[in-house]
Amino acid sequence: MAKLAPSLNHSGWDEMFSNKGVRDSYRQVFQTLQGLNHKTLTSKQKQASDLFMNQGITFTVYSDDENGIERIFPFDIIPRIITQEDWLEIESGIKQRLLALNLFLEDIYNDQQIIKDGIIPAGLIASCPHYIQEVQGIKVPHNIHVHIAGIDLIRGAKGEFYVLEDNLRCPSGVSYMLENREITKRIFPDMLSSNHVSMVSNYPMIFHSILVSLSPRNVSNPNVVLLTPGVYNSAYYEHSYLARQMGIPLVEGRDLVVNNSKVYMKTTSGLQQVDVIYRRLDDEYLDPLVFKPDSALGVPGLISAYRQGNVALVNAVGNGVADDKAIYAYVPDMIKYYMNEEPILKNVPTYRMENLDEREHVFSNMENMVVKETNQSGGYGMIMGNKATQEEIDEAKIAIINNPRNFIAQPIIQLSTVPCLIDGQLKLRHVDLRPYALCGPKGVQIVPGGLTRVALTEGSLVVNSSQGGGSKDTWIIK
Amino acid sequence: MEEVKTPGLLNNINIQKKIKDMLSRVADGMFWLNRYMERTDGMLLTLNTSYILSFDKEINDSQGYKPLLEYYTSLSKAKIHSIQYDTPHVLKYIICDNQNDNSVKNLVIKARENARGSQDKITKELWEHINSMYHFMNSPDLPKKLETSDALSVITKLNKDLLLYNGILQVTMPRGLGWCFSSIGKHIERCLQTISMTQAYFAPINYNLEGEEDLIYWRRLLLSLSGYELYLKSYSNISHNRKVVHQVIFNMDFAHSVIYTLDFINTYLDCLFKNTDLSEARTLMNQFGRLKSYIEFTDYQHLTNQELEDVLRNTKNQLIQFSTDFSKLFFSYT
To answer: Lower CB density within 10 Å: C or N end of chain B?
Structure first.
């Protein structure tokens, strides 16, 4: 039998264990795990890794040798469980947040009433690198700018949820949410069915119906495509997976051409007009005539076709202004301003480095702060005050003074922990949660689940896959 | 022209029509995926045949691995001459040498690249199989295995993997446009292999149709083309040269014969051209029709040595030209 009682997490929230023992939601899972020995658990872990490898759910690490090495994203077989009560709070909180963010984007690219009313400073928007002047005044179908969002949530010491980040541009990882569940079905079929876990496999169908509903042409079968940077992109597996699941063509920029402000794809029987593009390219690569002129990934003339309403882009162009880390601090104000409601989900307290008082407070408490660059993601451009050397802290302070708009600071929150199978034993590791919300003409829908990311290094709070993180299947139990 | 919303049956017709369109890049990917896999299959069969027959030391083998190396690699004549009997060297060079563009390893890598680019049009089962072959070819201990008595088991496993690939292709892939491009690519490659290997065995005997080469001589060619058993069942056991020509070029029952593969290509070309309004399609169809007729109306009974040489050379050249023109018509997406 495996050693199933890891050292408890006294300083924070553990998802499986409280001070009184195993939480109710985990009781069945714990009992099942207790009945398995080290060898069985390790062999299930290996089985999961082999399944990922054989299905090509890998990314390539290139070294001096010209041939890359294929690696899988680590998957931990112990599921992360969220109760129905917690899920309802998450679901309503994300819906509220997404509605407000969509209203903000519609406002900011049109009347800018929120600036005129003094809620958000104009300078903050103007200085945001992801605010796209080229789409100012644009009208998007159904006024929806954010069709898919991956909102990152963390849990504080008392189990309360915080929003850590709003990913509103090209949120990735949804294929792992879906594949993790498929793997769990194979390795823990009984445990899965006896826990009454909510289904996530309908995600591609919901998303596809939203994509179809956005077609600017009134046709019975609009052409919907998924635009990928290509086979060498680290998320290519996800792109091909989603295209296959939705039954839509997976196109690259070179497959598309713009003529007379309409987008066409090059097929074996000639050009076919494209109506909706689910793009997995960042804004700056979409159209070399508007953004990076040296980029070969995009489609010349695409933004012109988009501005004229001949093609819908999902997500809309310019969403980065809403998930900028400095503007994140204003999301609670947006909710109050647009919806006259109190935010259901809290923000992590955020200090703006342009504000001298807040900066002073951060500088005198650096060991308790995490400093983030506002235009970075994926765990890059981040300094953890409790891990950084004095030299790194001094360098960060100089960088902040030189360009305060480029930084925010947040108190270090001890993310919640979940037991993970590491070296044949259960050990506590920190996790976050990324549920995927879909927004269409009929409202916001969130499949009950999400991607739980795990910081596999002991004590680490960085869960990003680019920084050595892994993932877990996430169960919402009824 | 814009489509208009239509209810009921007409709606279904619209849906069906959409399936008949395919991205040129993806069609190109599926065409080359199957050319690479067919080339790998043919090369491994030839390697397997030569390797196993190399154990029969009493046989007067004047060629060794020469036919394999001449067709499937770009090595110089001098280099081929120096290694044509060097089994360990040939095994490594053909199976896993990174410098050999046509090694099994590099062909599988290229096939997988094409499969990745067409991943939304090939089935999960097919992708997973290609992917598992890729991982096997990249396993670090593979070159070492080829130096030991495990070499034969490696070749056998790879042969079975290719058989399995063909089975998965047949059983799981939908019969749409992608299937047409896949099948045409596969059979162009197969036809070129059959012609080239036939040339490799007839050239040393000056295309002598009345020669007295025995079955031991022809066994290599026939085994390399998976046609040995069929030959034994179909032809009497004397004066083989002309009968071998019949089997590999004119026998409609032999899946690797030139006429069979051309007929197969013709079937799928018909299917493609039914679904296209491209004006150049007619020209390409005529071009292929002339090529197929050339074989169909060659008088096998009165074929001379010179005519055999001409038929093989001309058919090969015309097929290469057809493949180029076919690619220009359907895949010119850049």
So the answer is: N
- Pick from B173, B195, B225: which residue ends a domain? B173
Q: Which fold has domain A350-411?
A: Dna Ligase; domain 1 (3.30.1490)
Comparing CA positions, the residue from A267, A246, A243 lying closest to residue A255 is A267
As a whole number of angstroms, the distance between CA A251 and CA A311 comes to 15
Q: Which of A178-182, A372-376, A412-416, B264-268 has the lowest mean pLDDT?
A: A372-376
Number of H helices, E strands in chain A: 15, 25
CB A66 within 8 A of CB A98: no
- pLDDT tens sequence across A388-406: 889 999 999 999 999 998 8
Fold of the domain built from segment(s) A217-310 = Rossmann fold (3.40.50)
Residue A268 φ/ψ, nearest 5 degrees: -70, -15
pLDDT tens across A52-100, in order?
Answer: 888 888 766 555 455 556 678 899 999 999 999 999 999 999 999 999 9
Do residues A437 and A445 touch, judged by C-beta distance below 8 A? yes
Q: Helix, strand or coil for residue B131?
A: helix
Which of B155, B173, B191 represents a domain boundary (last residue)? B173
Report the half-sphere exposure of A271 (CA within 13 A, side-chain side).
Answer: 14
Residues 6+ away with beta carbon under 8 Å from B315: B191, B195, B258, B291, B294, B295
- Please tell me the distance from the alpha carbon of residue B121 to that of residue A371, in angstroms, as a whole number: 45
Q: Tell me: the pLDDT tens digits for A96-137?
A: 999 999 999 999 999 999 999 999 999 999 999 899 999 999
Tokens linked to A218: 């009134």
| pTM for this entry | 0.84
Q: How far is CA A84 from CA A25, A93, A294, A449, A478, in A?
A: 10, 14, 49, 11, 6
pLDDT at B282: 85
Best of A269, A276, A280 to disrupt the B interface by mutation (most B CBs within 10 Å)?
A269
Domain ranges within chain A, ordered by starting residue: 217-310, 350-411
Angle ∠(A146,A290,A250) on CA atoms, nearest 5? 55
Give how far B305 is from chain A: nearest CA, Å.
Answer: 42
Q: Which domain holds residue B183?
A: 175-334
Q: Is B124 within the bounds of a domain?
A: yes
- Partnered with residue A83 across adjacent β-strands are A477
Residue B164 touches chain A, beta carbons under 8 Å: no
Give yes or no for B172 touching A (CB within 8 A): no
